[in-house]
Amino acid sequence: MAVICGLLAISSVIVSGCSGNGDKPGKQASTEPVARQYYIFDTVVNIKLYDDAKAEEHLDHIDTMLKTLDKELSRTLEGSQLYKVNEEAGKQPVEVSENTVAVVKRSIAYAEDSGGLFDPTVGGLVDLWNIGNGGEHVPEPEDLQRELNLVGYKDIVLDEAKRTVFLKRPGMVLDLGGIGKGYAADEVARYLREEGVKSALVDLGGSSIIVIGSKPNGDSWNIGLQDPDSSRGISVGTIRLNDHVIDTSGIYERYFIEDGVMYHHILDPRTGSPAQNDLKSVTILADNAMDADALSTFVYVMGLEDGLQYMENLGDDTEAMFITADDKIYVTSGLKDSFQVSSAQYTLVE
């Protein structure tokens, strides 16, 4: 018997109203935010704009942008470009937009860089497990092997000159959900910055947030990281950010329990099953959402030791935090002075 635990409503990141200047309050913001909610790639997106005289105009434009991207990159929207690519798998190339080319190209690069731990052709496995969509169950071994045999990013043929995408084998399913939402968020953030917006929040389903600029009063945004074992709004710790992205992949987001065993939604492309590594969550801080989106997924699959080493070796401003099953928190060197634990349950490992 499967027990379905839909915890999508629990945000992985929590925006706090705390001041970034310790006890010194910043100046009062002149306006309340103008907010709007959207739906793209089966995910709720919330955007808040502060001190923006053209907020409604900007939000209308974003609505058009997101609807266009959904028609290009959504795997489940019938008639979308990606839907057609999957329909024509093993048959013929499909002409796509520049946006789709950019996301497919980047997904292949992530796959190569991660040694296949990030693989955008896991769509068949995602459908088979169906975690979070109702009907979750442990697949039969023969079904799992069938879909696992169709995973292989090297069988994606991308022709940038002709702007076409082709999957070599019938039955392959390309799924850009691992970075498509990040790409959409980056496009929204780019537009807002070009329009001169100085203070905004872009929230993708609670697991990923882009903070644009600073808070309206000039302070840094104070971001709380969701306690994996607690209800919404309870944080394990906080970090202050300006112009940055924070993205979390955690086993508590979508999972089900069958015969006393928990199965979460983060699949290992090597086995076709949920990754097993005693991690509750991985959080990535980066300067763009597409990198953060991909990294949080495949670094989770790497596990603590390999994932921590990989992140330390990146050599840029990208940072990571790992929460283990025994309630220990590990952070990369760039976070040691800025992350503050707020829960007595957890221990920050120095």
Automatic annotation (TrEMBL):
Entry keyword Magnesium: yes
Top-level class of the enzyme under EC nomenclature: transferase
Organism: Fontibacillus panacisegetis
Cofactor: Mg(2+); Mn(2+)
InterPro entries: ApbE, ApbE-like_sf
UniProt: Mg(2+) binding residues: G178, D293, T297
Name of protein: FAD:protein FMN transferase
This enzyme's EC code(s): 2.7.1.180
Cofactor binding remark: Magnesium. Can also use manganese.
Signal peptide (UniProt feature, chain positions): none
Taxonomy of the source species: Bacteria, Bacillati, Bacillota, Bacilli, Bacillales
Family, similarity comment: Belongs to the ApbE family.
Domain of life: Bacteria
Keyword Transport attributed: no
Keywords assigned by UniProt, alphabetized: FAD, Flavoprotein, Lipoprotein, Magnesium, Metal-binding, Transferase
Catalytic activity from the UniProt record: L-threonyl-[protein] + FAD = FMN-L-threonyl-[protein] + AMP + H(+)
MF term (GO), any: metal ion binding
Pfam family, one: ApbE
Alphabetized Gene3D superfamilies for the sequence: ApbE-like domains
